[in-house]
Specification:
The structure is a single chain. With about 525 residues, the protein is mainly α. Among the domains are: about 120 residues, Nucleotidyltransferases  domain 2 (Four Helix Bundle (Hemerythrin (Met), subunit A)), CATH 1.20.120; about 120 residues. Helix content is about 75%, strand content about 0%. It is flat. The protein starts with 7 loop residues before the first helix and ends in a 7-residue tail after the last helix. The N terminus is likely disordered. One of its GO terms (biological process) is establishment of mitotic spindle orientation. InterPro entries: ARM-like (IPR011989), ARM-type_fold (IPR016024), Armadillo (IPR000225), Insc_C (IPR045789), INSC_LBD (IPR031938), INSC_LBD_sf (IPR038205), Inscuteable (IPR039921).
Length: about 525
């Protein structure tokens, strides 16, 4: 389950209210506050939070139960029966609280749900009684026999609990999708899409449930109706989240989702925000990290118009965020099919990308530069690319990227900086087969910078991938300009086999004993 990472003390304070006085909470929640009809009280309870808030409370409670079950298994392994029993009592209370909380804000539980709730509650009671008996037994042989039964009961509790949570989440997804299908109201539709988006943020498992229940189909149906144009950005954002899983991708292919995205991107009447969100979906479904993009056959049919629209979006981007989404989509497409690089060359995209990098308001983060240098690296396999790099002062840009450093120290930003350094070295290595590019790189002092990156682990943040790329670029430039290296650099970084130079450079790191 996806949980927002926060300060540990803050997390403890939030969890504390769910973990204290569980017995009292169970008793109170099982009884009405007044002797009169309880509809008004229920209404007050349910109106305090939205469906998304209620679901967050449920998921947090479920996370606590899941954690407790894991801890019980650990304590059971160590035969700490007192701890096992007290934790079992706590889990029992949490399960009662979770079921009561869910039934408070849900009016339409199914028969299957009630059966699962009863099974789980009965099994939890049995589990608590079992561990209590174990406390009263001192005979080691009897305890050993009982331990296997306790383990079996724990497994059953975990199984029923998992099934109940799965059913709850499935019913929530079904409810939201039913709202989208039956309502023509913009307000209701907007609320339902927001609910789906919140569900999708909870992780891949939730995305699979939504896709399985027809979420992708329903969202693309909205994107094909002009009356819901104002909801397109939010709808596309939700689609981008769901399509991180294979089930979502299969559904997208079935409903001709690529064609719909192409239509949105090429329709100039749509807002920049809508175009940017469509680009985000393209970036998601073409991600090189996904292993299930091969079935996107329809993408090739629409590639030229999609690439053209994305280049235009990059060129006219009014903010760094829009440029990042459009360039990320382009970068992923260049991995997806080599034909994309040829289309980009014909569209003179190289010039546009190099120009954008000089605008610090547009290319304003290492993440954006990572996308640009990815496109340059993939395009650099084409022979015609070298002349465009020279014309656009691209070698100077690649040299600057070799100095990429994180200003915040944030791990994600540091990783992005490493990728920028690595890919700029790779691009230099590929382009330096052209004597004109190699000459420009030498004149801009690329060789000393590459040597420093090889010899100083801190300069490359101890990244092996940056080291390998820099060694390859250095060797290519040394062939074109052997006079640019001192003899020691040549003997250690160029002359040996690449693997020997790599080992030499990695052993330069300081060792603390």
């Amino acid at each position: 389950m996806h949980l927002i990472q926060v300060d540990s003390v803050q997390r403890w304070m939030e969890d504390l209210k769910l973990m204290t006085d569980c017995e009292c909470m169970c008793i109170l929640q099982s009884k009405p506050i007044s002797t009169e009809k309880d509809e008004q009280n229920e209404l007050i309870l349910s109106s305090q939070y939205s469906t998304c808030d209620n679901l967050q409370i449920l998921l947090k409670r479920a996370w606590i139960i899941s954690t407790e079950l894991t801890r019980i298994a650990q304590k059971l392994e160590k035969n700490r029966w007192q701890r096992v029993h007290s934790m079992t009592v706590r889990v029992n209370c949490h399960v009662h609280s979770m079921i009561n909380e869910y039934n408070t804000f849900t009016r339409s539980s199914s028969e299957e749900m009630h059966q699962l709730e009863k099974l789980l509650i009965d099994k939890c009671s049995e589990f608590t009684a079992f561990t209590e008996r174990c406390l009263q037994t001192e005979d080691e042989e009897i305890l050993k026999t009982m331990k296997s039964c306790v383990n079996e009961t724990l497994t059953t509790v975990a199984q029923y609990f998992g099934q109940l949570i799965e059913l709850v989440l499935t019913q929530e997804a079904q409810s939201l999708l039913r709202q989208m299908e039956l309502s023509g109201s913009l307000y209701v539709m907007d609320s339902a899409i927001s609910g789906l988006f919140s569900l999708a943020q909870e992780g891949a498992h939730l995305c699979r449930i939504i896709a399985k229940e027809g979420g992708v189909v329903a969202l693309f149906k909205i994107c094909r109706q002009d009356c819901f144009r104002c909801l397109y950005p939010q709808t596309l954002r939700t689609l981008a989240s769901i399509c991180c899983v294979e089930e979502g991708m299969h559904q997208l292919e079935k409903v001709d989702g690529i064609l719909c995205l192409a239509d949105i991107l090429t329709d100039t009447s749509h807002s920049e925000v809508t175009h940017a969100e469509a680009a985000a979906v393209i970036a998601q479904i073409t991600s090189p990290h996904l292993t299930f993009t091969q079935h996107l056959s329809s993408f090739l049919e629409n590639m030229e118009e999609i690439v053209t629209a994305l280049v235009k979006l990059c060129q006219e981007a009014s903010s760094g965020e829009v440029f990042l989404l459009a360039s990320a989509a382009l970068a992923n497409i260049t991995f997806f099919d080599t034909m994309a690089c040829e289309i980009l060359l014909q569209l003179n995209a190289m010039k546009m990308l190099l120009a954008a990098c000089s605008d610090k308001c547009i290319v304003d983060t290492p993440y954006s530069r990572d996308q640009v240098v990815t496109i340059l690296a993939n395009m650099s396999v084409l022979d015609q690319c070298a002349s465009q790099i020279i014309k656009g002062n691209g070698v100077q840009l690649l040299m600057e990227m070799l100095f990429e450093k994180s200003s915040s120290g944030n791990p994600a930003e540091v990783a992005a900086c490493e990728r920028v350094q690595q890919k700029s070295a790779v691009t230099l290595a590929r382009l330096s087969r052209d004597p004109e590019v190699a000459d420009a790189a030498v004149k801009l002092s690329c060789i000393p910078r590459l040597i420093k990156l090889c010899r100083s682990p801190t300069e490359r943040n101890n990244s092996d991938s940056v080291l390998v790329a820099c060694l390859a670029a250095l060797r290519r430039l040394a062939v074109m300009s052997p006079d640019g290296l001192e003899d020691s650099d040549f003997q250690q970084l160029v002359k040996p086999r690449l693997v020997d130079s790599f080992l030499l450079c990695t052993n330069m790191e300081e060792s603390f004993v």
